[in-house]
Amino acid sequence: MCFFITYSKSKTPRRPGPKKASNTEKDPVGVYCRIRPLGTEDEECCVEMISSSTIQLHAPDGLKANRNGEYKETQYSFKKVFGINTTQMELFEDVAKPLVEDLIHCKNGLLFTYGVTGSGKTFTMTGSPGEGGLLPRSLDMLFNSIGPFQAKRFVFKPDEKNGMEIQNQVDALLERQKRDSQQSVPKTPSSRQRADPEFADMISSEEACKSENVDEDCCFSVFVSYIEIYNNYIYDLLEDAPYDPIRPKPPQSKILREDQNHNMYVAGCTEVEVKSTEEAFEVFWKGQKKRRIANTQLNRESSRSHSVFTVKLAQAPLDADGDHILQDKNQVNVSQLCLVDLAGSERTSRTKFSPHRNINQSLMTLRTCMEVLRENQMCGTNKMVPYRDSKVTHLFKNYFDGEGKVRMIVCVNPNADDYEETMLVMRFAEMTQEVEVARPVDRPICFLPAGRRHRNQAFRNEFPRRLDEQGGPINDPVLLNQLIESLPALPPCEVVDPADDQTLPRLIEVLEKRQRIRQMMTEEFNKTGTGLQLNAKETFLHDQQSKLGEKEKVIIGQRTELERLEKKSKTLEYKIDILQKTTGMYEQDKRSLQQELETREQRLQRELSERRRMEQRMQGMVTDTKLKWEKECERRVNAKQLEMQNKLWVKDEKLKQLKAIVTESSNGSVSLLHPQGNVFKTRGGGQAVQFTDIETLKQEYQTAPSRKRRSGSAEGPVQMDEIENRVRFYYHHCYYHLYLFRYH
């Protein structure tokens, strides 16, 4: 069931459109969770309460694993979680009591229960004897708060266009007499009569509560209606249709309409005026007996329809004297409180329920509307919300568009058999918490001064007392006898002679004189009484005026203080604006500097990365070049070494030949080798000789006589030593050249 609080006026000027201002403050949808106890102790539990706002779902042991091979434990957060030991009173205090306060102050609200069949939705809303639910407790608080200020029956009258009219006292009296005269219409019980035993002990006197902030200068009237939505059709559960036992007719469905304020309502719905909690209970029970229930596999008596119990509160201010209701239709305020008990959200395969009576389509539409609302608010899109796809969402669309508070109670059955359905319910609740609803506006303040009812009641109590003090009606028998004796005495009335014509005229004259005196005394008494009344009233008015003067002085002082505070507030607002502008400038400079710093950091990072890439590239090139030149030098050294070895081998061969020539002294000629080569500079600044060839020097000598030979025999060794020195010099120079080539 669900509470709706709607604020509307009778014949209020038409609003420009249903769109709200973009700067309207919004509040998220309040989602609460209630866990019901397990049916038996041997049932497996899959829900655990972690904290006052968090629950955790455990996969049952016998459930098949998912693709990953296991079910993970999931946690869900709510505005508040009510455990299995939570009483109905505690739930009412946290969830429904603020909505009843808003109802009395002409604000909208919505409260509905959601969950699978058997999770405790109907118990949460309706309750049981000794444990009244949200519906009876809300009605009890409402009538406890406005009981002394209720208007007489038929003073307020619905205009069949979701508005309210005010009837004068005569028309209201005629309506009451007409209702009392109709014997066929049974009277609803008053608060003094015996209540229905179904609701007699729902709420104890210790748990009764009331609102303290009720406007005493207003008169209130309560109207209730009860409908159900079944297979996307709306039926009136309070409609008194004639019953034909031979050919019973099915109930006629109702249609939805839009009033002048763009609020949706059920056209032709029966609205019953009630004056007490017991009377409202009886009306509710009358419609409850017509609800469609069915025997499903999950619950023996399962609600297969959505029920909406609406409490409409009409209120209007009293006139300046505080006696009667102000006859101004523009001052009539109407608010609504609706209790909606949604049907079970489980799948048809589990309920084994007939497809033509399946109501899950409306719940799917509700989920879709919530998803679109969340997407529009979070992503800034402007998608059309499909309210019209279901009667439930179409009827409630004003509340999601900003016509009041929205509250949802998610009822959970911890039985492991409902694990999959419970997980779907948790996902829907988690998504619903992200939807925001515009905050309702306060009602306009009445222009009449406050305290009118109290002043009128004080005057009624004070006037008789003042009249008694200053002399009221004469009720003393002694004073009455004295007054009678002061009148002229009656003459003898006995008539003896039929021709007597003096006795009767004399009696008539005396009686006429007594009548004139009586009239004069009556007029004098009336004048005296009127004067006394005027004096008492003037005295009372003078006292009230003096009190009013004191109040006006207090008001003037408060106005002066208010003006001072307003000036101070304006000064502070001006300073706040300056600080905000300065803060905005600083924030802008900060953002620009941060952007510049980020840009420079990015540029530095790019340069560092480019430098690292260049270093790696240069290191690679140096390494490749070094390897290349090392291989080239090694190749050249090997080639040069081989070449020098070949040349050295050639030199050795020539040296061997030279030695052979020198040793052959018998030939008469000496062959000398003269090396030829090129001279080049070394790295150290010196010079080196590169030999290219050996010149063979031949020295011939003539054959001399033995005398000359003897004389020349001394020169032979000298020449041989010189040749050996030259050969040795050549040999050393060859190795020196090889050394220079290898290391330079």
TrEMBL record:
Q: Where is this region: Disordered?
A: 5-25, 176-198
| One Pfam assignment | Kinesin
Major place of localization? cytoplasm
Q: Where would you find this protein in the cell?
A: Cytoplasm, Cytoskeleton
SMART domains from the entry?
Answer: KISc
Which SUPFAM superfamilies does this chain map to?
A: P-loop containing nucleoside triphosphate hydrolases
Which positions bind ATP? 115-122
Which family is it part of?
Belongs to the TRAFAC class myosin-kinesin ATPase superfamily. Kinesin family.
Question: What name does the UniProt record give this protein?
Answer: Kinesin-like protein
